[in-house]
Amino acid sequence: MDRVLHFLSISGVGGLVVSVGAFIVFFIVECFTIPPGSYTFEPPNLGPGSFEPTLNRYQRLTEFIVGLATGSIVLLAGTSIFHADGRLPQLYGPALVLLAMSIVWLVLFISCTTFFYEDWKHHPEIYKHWRYRLIVTFGFSGLVSFALGYLRLGFALMGH
């Protein structure tokens, strides 16, 4: 029990717990809201290739958020040289981990979306509910981790 408490007291672990917790909550919610079955990327009335503009928007949004998160991490890590001991205060730990986890979730989101779409184009019957749930969960986990990371960063900058 002492090891668990020690692990949870490490700076940044709180951000990891929140991000993974968000992933679990979103997945459970998606299990209730997305019924089992096969799904399609393209509505039948729009024809082939109609998902590609949407995929392009997803990719651009992901690039933008990953760029912001990465830049923030690098900028904060670079400022550590200005501190007396060469390290960032522990207040920044959870925010940095949340931003890092947003990058992980969003890279998984766009990678799985692209992979599943390409796979679906060749084998439409294999795009099942579990793939759809996974994509939605990765996307929302990334967005929430990013938002919470910046919110936590704001509080850390204020010294709280």
Description:
With 160 residues, this protein is mainly α. It has one domain (11-33, 47-158). Helices cover 72% and strands 0% of the residues. The chain is built from 5 helices and no strands. The chain has helices at residues 2-9, 13-33, 52-78, 93-122, 129-158. α3 (52-78) packs antiparallel against α4. The longest helix is centred in the last third of the chain and has 30 residues, at 93-122. The model has no long low-confidence stretch (mean pLDDT 89).
Q: What quaternary form is this?
A: single chain
How far apart the termini lie comes to 28 Å
Radius of gyration: 19 Å
Output the number of helix runs.
5
Class derived from helix and strand content: mainly alpha
The beta-strand count equals: 0
Work out the count of structural domains: 1
Into which percent range does the helicity of residues fall?
over 70%
Catalogue the unreliable spans.
none
Strand content: under 5%
What is the general shape?
elongated
The largest sheet, given as strand count, sense and whether it forms a barrel, is: none
| Mean pLDDT reading | 89
SSE string: HHHHH
